[in-house]
Amino acid sequence: MDPLSAISEELAEIDGQIADIFRALSNGFQKLEKIKDSNRQSRQLEELTGKMRECKRLIKEFDREIKDMESRNDPATTKMLNEKKQSMIKELNSYVALKKQFATNLDNKKIDLFDGPTEELGEENVLLASNMSNQQLMDNGHQMMDETDQAIERTKKVVHDTVNVGTETAAALKAQTEQMSRIVNELDSIHFSIKKASQLVKEIGRQVATDKCIMALLFLIVVGVIAIIIVKIANPNNKDIRDIPGLAPPATRKLLWYPR
């Protein structure tokens, strides 16, 4: 059983992660020695540098855990944990030094790659210029000026095309903005129309309700009149309905003659 597990599960977990990184660093530097291509060596070195940063972060976390537990641990345990931390730092520093060594070798290789051809090219240009006559030098200068003018013209064309593209884009954006404004206005009109239609429907509903009430009242009046007529026909001597206008029998009219 890991002695750190008896002290703290957090410390044991951090110690295991650091040990895994140290194994990966060891294997990585062994592979780095076998790689001949400088680009692949650079990528491998960057990957190992990232692992070392992660290892440094875990060691700091390990140190914080030790300080948090210092009041609960006895001096012997605290001493053992600090020695463990120092051992981790020492091993990490060894990989950092190894990384610096490989980085220096890579930089030297890059310098050799860039400096060698440059020096040869410079010597070749000097020899070429010394062997050329004045007319050849002038012709060569004119040719370089023509090439420069052509490059400038191509640059102007690119700038001109870029300006045209920008103008077309601005016009398209303006047209889209106007179209969006028209759509918003149409939506406002539709909303207003829907609101007016809703109000009209409510008014029609109220009018229909009023007409229904009037029709119901008329229906009741007609039914009442029909009922009175039926009762009068069935019982013509009923005094309760004799005085109803239009249903009472005609009164006997007497003509009064007044003498002169």
UniProtKB/TrEMBL annotation:
Example of a GO biological process term: vesicle fusion
Signal sequence bounds: none
Family note: Belongs to the novel plant SNARE family.
Membrane-protein topology: Single-pass type IV membrane protein
Subcellular location: Membrane
Transmembrane domains' residue ranges: 214-234
PROSITE patterns on file: T_SNARE
Domain T-SNARE coiled-coil homology residues, every copy: 142-204
InterPro entries: NPSN/SNAP25-like_N_SNARE, Sec20_C, T_SNARE_dom
Keyword RNA-binding: no
Gene Ontology molecular function terms on file: SNAP receptor activity; SNARE binding
SUPFAM superfamilies membership: SNARE fusion complex (SSF58038)
Domain of life: Eukaryota
Cellular component GO terms, alphabetical: endoplasmic reticulum membrane; ER to Golgi transport vesicle membrane; Golgi apparatus; late endosome membrane; SNARE complex
Principal localisation: membrane
Swiss-Prot/TrEMBL keywords: Coiled coil, Membrane, Protein transport, Transmembrane, Transmembrane helix, Transport
Pfam families reported in the protein's UniProt record: Sec20
Protein name: t-SNARE coiled-coil homology domain-containing protein
Coiled coil spans: 45-72
Species for this entry: Rhamnella rubrinervis
